[in-house]
């Protein structure tokens, strides 16, 4: 039995999926080719792995009016789908900001191919290699961890979000930790 190339890229928690019912037409066709990642998902997209995942965007993001709010955004990739709900689609997109920054965003999309909400879930920069963002995505929460390595002791800030039934992200908790602080627990 031949091994799927997508399984090698995404790991054992990914499967090729059937079309998403909430989106129709060409948008559904492009989403059909994206793998579904199953919970829990750890997203730590970085410059070493982003071009090996998903598929290059050929206009899907323009059709849904995705605005990265960066004039230097390039190299858009549709990475995978997240099975949060059958009421809306949830996809993960990565793009470059200039030569040194990489952003990964979780987007929820309604049945009319309109963006409901978006949440940045991963970040990497290679100019100073001092800042990063990773996420752990579970069915009932998304924990985003920002790391700052600019000082002698790294600082980690976490934000916890829930995905509401209407497809909107809601922040429910935030905190900062420093491993050098005696009250820090790993």
Total DSSP E strands: 12
Over all CA atoms, what is the radius of gyration? 17 Å
The total of helices stands at 3
Main sheet? Answer: 10 strands, antiparallel
Fraction of residues in H or I helices: under 10%
Class by alpha and beta content: mainly beta
Mean pLDDT across the residues is 81
How far apart are the first and last residues' alpha carbons, in Å? Answer: 42 Å
β-strand percent reads 35-45%
How is this structure best described in words?
With 186 residues, the chain is mainly beta. The protein has three helices and twelve strands. The strands form two sheets. Strands 3, 4, 5, 6, 7, 8, 9, 10, 11 and 12 form a ten-stranded antiparallel sheet that branches. A hairpin with a 5-residue loop joins β11 and β12. It is globular, with a radius of gyration of 17 Å.
């Amino acid at each position: 039995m031949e091994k799927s190339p997508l399984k090698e890229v995404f790991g054992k928690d990914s499967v090729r999926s059937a079309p998403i019912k909430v989106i129709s037409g060409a948008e559904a066709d492009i989403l059909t080719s994206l793998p579904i990642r199953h919970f829990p998902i750890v997203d730590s997209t970085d410059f070493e792995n982003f071009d090996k995942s998903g598929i290059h965007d050929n206009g899907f993001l323009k059709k849904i009016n995705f605005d990265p709010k960066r004039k230097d955004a390039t190299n858009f990739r549709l990475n995978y789908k997240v099975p949060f709900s059958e009421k809306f689609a949830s996809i993960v997109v990565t793009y470059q900001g200039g030569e040194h920054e990489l952003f990964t965003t979780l987007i929820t999309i309604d049945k009319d191919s309109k963006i409901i909400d978006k949440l940045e879930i991963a970040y990497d920069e290679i100019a100073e290699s001092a800042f990063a963002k990773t996420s752990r995505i579970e069915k009932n929460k998304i924990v985003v961890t920002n790391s700052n390595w600019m000082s002698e002791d790294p600082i980690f800030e976490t934000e916890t979000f829930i995905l509401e039934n209407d497809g909107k992200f809601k922040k429910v908790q935030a905190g900062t930790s420093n491993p050098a602080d005696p009250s820090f627990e790993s």
